[in-house]
Structures are given as structure tokens and as C-alpha cells.
Amino acid sequence: MTDKCTGCAESQEKAKELQKIIAKYKDTRGALIPVLHEAQEVYGYLPLEVQREIANQLDIPLAEVYGVVSFYTQFSINPKGKYRINVCMGTACYVKGANEILDKFRTRLSVDVGECTDDQKFSLDACRCIGACGLAPVVTINDEVYGKLVPDDVDDILDKYEEL
Fold this sequence. Notes:
Elements (H helix, E strand, L loop, with lengths): L2 H23 L6 H12 L4 H11 L3 H10 L11 E6 L2 H5 L2 H12 L12 E6 L11 E3 L2 E3 L6 H10 L2
Parallel strand pairs: 1-2
Antiparallel strand pairs: 1-3, 3-4
């Protein structure tokens, strides 16, 4: 079996799961946000095709679905990497150099905020305060927290994950 066929099987399985999610909420008032949350758990993000299917099945305009997806920061229209990097841009982190750290990640990974590396290993995001101001500037990679960073720390951090 080729990789392409494996991808098709995986895609078909995800589509079936999406149909189950939609069916579970079909007659529930205010179902859009729970459907989007569960769909994102299945796909890892909310591509336009998924948004279109949700809109069609829930009989709501695609513009409404997209409006919700683009308004709430917990939803993503871009794929996420195996290692999801979040650079805190809250006031304490920003004042202590978070912007320079974010720039270093951008340069090293050759991606911008909201993007994923071609190999799907890393995605880069900036977020508001994560509540670790005493460790500013702070970066999280999945559930790992890195604090009191300087731009020179970025290479060592990424090297650790590239070896995994």
C-alpha cells in the first residue's frame, strides 16, 4: 500500500468521525462550538473543507462557521506541528524580550506565526499571557515550559526536539 492510499484511509476515517460528531449535536441548539472543538481534536486544525462540511450538515452559513473559527484563538485554520511552540507575548514577557525570542524561532524554523514547518514537526504561535510572569519571557512547547529565556537559548531548545 502506498503512502497516498494510507493518507486516503486516514482521511476517510477522519471524515467518518466528523459525521459522528455532527450527528451527535445535529439537533442541539448552539452546537457549533462543541462540534468545532471535537472536529479540531480529530483533524488537529479546522481546514476549509471541514468547516464547509460542518456548515452544510448543521445548515448554517459557512461565513458563520468561519467567523467563529477565526474569532476564537483556540481554533486553528492551519495545521499544527508535532511540537507546538507558543511564545508568550504578554506584557511581562514582551518587556523582557519575547519579541526577539519569537524572531529567533521564526528565523531558525523559516516559518511565521501561525505556520507549520514543511515536515510538520514544528508549528509556531504567539499567545497572550500564560500566567508565568515570574519566568518571563516564557515559551511553551506542547506541555513543556521554558522560562527566563534569551534568544541564544532557542537553538539549544530546538536541537533537543530535532533529535527526538
